[in-house]
Specification:
It contains 15 helices and two strands. Strands 1-2 form a two-stranded antiparallel sheet.
């Protein structure tokens, strides 16, 4: 009996233990990398640079994502990004655009609108300048959505909950539940479509969508009830007793720190506050962190297999932040290269050193080994 228990324990340690992300990289590092790429995408409307950002994020996801349900949601985010791009183009064609242009593509029948709807038109001339401007704008938003999908694929949002301070635990739970809605919805939809195909029933088109939608919503409701029961069984929302002086100190530090962060940020953004902006910002961040540390004493909890911030995590997060910083610098020094002109309409060009900066985001694909495939039970 003891030998059997020992064998099962060894098997669990060797192949049955759940993975903690690609090669043990901290979940926060993957999210910082992905959000930094998204920040870099907001600094440019050049379609060549945006396409390069999409290629970089997609290559890293394919190389490093684990075999989990949240990793399969990347395709859903790509489809959502394509839908956003198409909707942006349709709005530009149907509702018009304030961008002036002389290259008319097509003239649609214009619908007359009442006087209170001035500034809005339906139909009319569709110019190439307006379509190109809508394409650039929609591609930027689509790239941002794909970067968020890359973060979901590389590190499940639930893993971030273990790294939050105790003072933000309840807020973090709400955010994580909201962020995991899309991956769970995609997994339920695939499971139900596969079941319908095995039974010889239609799983595509409007009829298949209607017949799959109700079970998906039912599964979401059952999952929310089970989550509420599990949270109640684990004592979620219960706080420990702390001294009144500690509570007041926590409130003062947190509120003062947030006000200091706002004042310091305002000082950095204005020319008059350049001298005091950075010191006030650093003091505010320190006070806010101290308040969060004290507030964590009200929510005592343990961490099972906590993620560790190692050298690979620093490399992953640093590569993404370096891309964002270099793109921001390029946007300040050469705005025309990162924002190609629409009026007059000129073809976009690929700036060399901003493109090389984007390629630095490929560092995780080479520095982080791929996650091993799960072993089949013997």
């Amino acid at each position: 009996m003891r030998d059997a228990v020992r064998d099962r324990g060894r098997a669990g340690r060797s192949g049955g233990a759940p993975a903690r992300g690609p090669a043990g990289v901290h979940a926060g590092a993957w999210w910082l990398w992905a959000l930094a790429l998204g920040t870099a995408a907001t600094r440019t409307t050049n379609p060549l640079l945006l396409g390069l950002l999409l290629a970089v994020s997609g290559y890293v996801v394919v190389s490093c994502r684990p075999n989990t349900p949240s990793a399969r949601s990347y395709t859903a985010f790509v489809r959502l990004a394509l839908a956003v791009l198409v909707i942006r183009l349709v709005f530009a064609v149907v509702l018009g655009s304030p961008i002036p242009g002389s290259h008319v593509i097509v003239s649609l029948p214009e619908v007359p609108l009442p006087h209170w709807a001035q500034g809005i038109r339906l139909g009319g001339r569709v110019t190439a300048e307006a379509v190109v401007f809508a394409l650039y704008d929609g591609l930027k938003l689509a790239t941002l959505l794909v970067c968020v999908g890359a973060a979901n694929a590389l590190a499940a949002p639930a893993r971030l909950l273990k790294s939050l301070p105790g003072a933000l635990y309840e807020t973090g739970v709400a955010v994580v539940v909201a962020l995991t809605f899309a991956p769970h919805l995609v997994a339920d939809g695939r499971r139900l479509r596969a079941a319908r195909r095995l039974r010889g029933r239609p799983d595509r088109g409007v009829r298949g969508l209607v017949q799959v939608g109700l079970p998906v919503l039912e599964g979401a409701l059952e999952r929310s009830v089970a989550l509420a029961a599990a949270m109640d069984a684990r004592g979620y929302g219960r706080t420990a007793e702390v001294a009144p002086a500690v509570r007041r100190t926590t409130a003062v530090l947190t509120l003062g720190g947030l006000l200091g962060v706002c004042a310091g940020t305002y000082g950095l953004l204005t020319a008059e506050g350049g001298t005091y902006g950075l010191p006030v910002l650093l003091a505010g961040v320190a006070a806010a962190l101290a308040g969060l540390w004290l507030g964590g004493h009200r929510s005592p909890r343990t961490r099972y297999r906590p993620d560790s911030w190692n050298l690979r995590s620093c490399l992953v997060a640093g590569s993404g932040m370096l891309v964002a910083a270099l793109l921001a610098l390029a946007a300040a020094r050469d705005p025309q290269a990162l924002h190609p002109g629409v009026v007059p309409l000129v073809p976009p060009t690929l700036p060399l050193w901003p493109a090389a900066a984007v390629l630095l985001g490929l560092a995780p694909a080479f520095a982080v080994p791929a996650s091993p495939a799960p072993k089949e039970p013997s």
